[in-house]
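>> received
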Amino acid sequence: MDLIPTIDLTAPDPARIDRALQNAGFLLVTGHGIDPSLPAAIRETARDFFRLPVSAKQPYAVKVGGRGWLGPGAEANGYAEGTETPPDLKESLSFAAEQPTGDAAVDAEWFVPNTWPFEVPDLKPLLADYLAGMKALSDRLLDLLAVSLGRPEDFFTRHTGHPTWGFNINWYPGTDTVGAPQPGQFRIGPHTDFGTVTVLDRQHGKGGLQVFSDRHGWQDAPYDPAALTVNIGDLMARWTDGRWKSGRHRVLPPPADAPAEELLSLVYFYECDPGTDVRGIDSHTYLRAQLDAITAD
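>> returned
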């Protein structure tokens, strides 16, 4: 079965997309137009930050949903499923939408300025280019998803005039940094994402991404160095009245036979305009509750 197909965005097949999102909620996409040298430069720069001593990173520490550094033990994604897992074995640099809407209450919660570590000054201009590309790509994907669902092309993007989004640079170090995994502990615990679409630039590894489907259980996600990984979240699944599945996934712990493995993932979470009604729920009330749920402390 074509569980997680590769879709060429220059000649997409809407029926194939529809089938894949019914099965596992995941796609690989090529023809996306993102210059591969850009994520490579972001990884190199972010790695310089993550390898700083904790004392240098601590001034940027935030809780889940904040803009800054999520240190060890800050997040446990399994909590979103109601599972009391140990904290995720990762660190993150988190950024989010910051251009204000003019609504003071909305802006205070969802559009506050990002924090840029002065130790890595090259990061801000690199991310300016990358995040602009992610925004354009996400809207392009939403238009394609609408067509794949048999809806008008702007069915989703009519709700992304001034959307929220989040972006994590996830660092998955080896056991020399995080120690031996506890029972049931992952780099990221089993969960589904919360919003509309997630666009992931990932590295291949033994302790990498796994995807769940009802028919096959947990399987290693296919990898193509030229492709981005796309999955849909809870709001998109709800928007389709359950036709499509929110992609359940996890990231395995550092492998016993490669304990020094280090991976860096770039994760763009695209959402919708604050106040958007998604089949009877307020989208951002739901998003805030889920972010609170995965806060490990």
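>> The chain has eight helices and 14 strands.
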